Amino acid sequence: MARLSLVPQKREFFDLYNRAAANNVAVAERLVQLLDRYPEGAGDLVREVKELEHEGDRLTHELVDLLNRTFVTPFDRDDMYRLAGALDDICDHVDEAAGRVASYGVSEIREQARGQAQVIRRAAAKLAEAVGGLEGFKESRRELIELRELEDEGDRLEHDAVSSLFAGGTDPLTVIRWKDIHEGLEEAVDACENAADVLEAILVKNR
Length: 207
Description:
Layout: H1 10-37, H2 42-69, H3 77-103, H4 111-132, H5 141-167, H6 172-205
C-alpha cells in the first residue's frame, strides 16, 4: 500500500516539472531534425520522437503518483494536475505531427512546415525557461510574452501555408495531406501556449 506523505515534497515536484519541460524541448528538436533532413533518417527520428513521448507519459505518471501520495503540496493540487497535463499534451501533439509526416507518404517537406517546427522548438524552450522559475514563483513574464508572440507567428505560418495550398493548383490529395500536417503542427504550438496560460495563472495566484 502506498504511503501518504505529510511532508511537502517540494524539490521533487519542481524537478519533475523541469524534466517534463526539458523533454518537450528534446521532442521538439527531433521534430525540427525530422523536417530538415526528411526523408533521410526519418524512421529513426520518428522512433526517437515516440520514445520521448513515452518519457513524457512516464514523467506525468510519476508526477500524478507523487501528488496522490503527498498530503501537503507546494501549491494548489488541481493546478499541479493541470500543469502536468498541459506539459504532457505538448509531447502528444508533437508525436502526432511527426507521425502524420511519416505516415502520409509526402515526397518533400514544405518550407512553411519547417518554419512551424522551429516555432514549436522555440516555444518549448521559452516554456522550459518559465517552468524553471516555478520554484519560488519567480517572475517569468518576459518568457511568457515571447512565447505568445511565437504562437502568433505560428498562426501566421499555418494560415499562409494552408492558403498557398489552395491557391497553387495543387493535387487534391496533397492538399488534404498537407492541410492536416500543418494543422497538427499548429496544435503543438497551441499546446505550448495553453501550458503557458496554466503556468501564468499559477504564478499570479502564488505571488
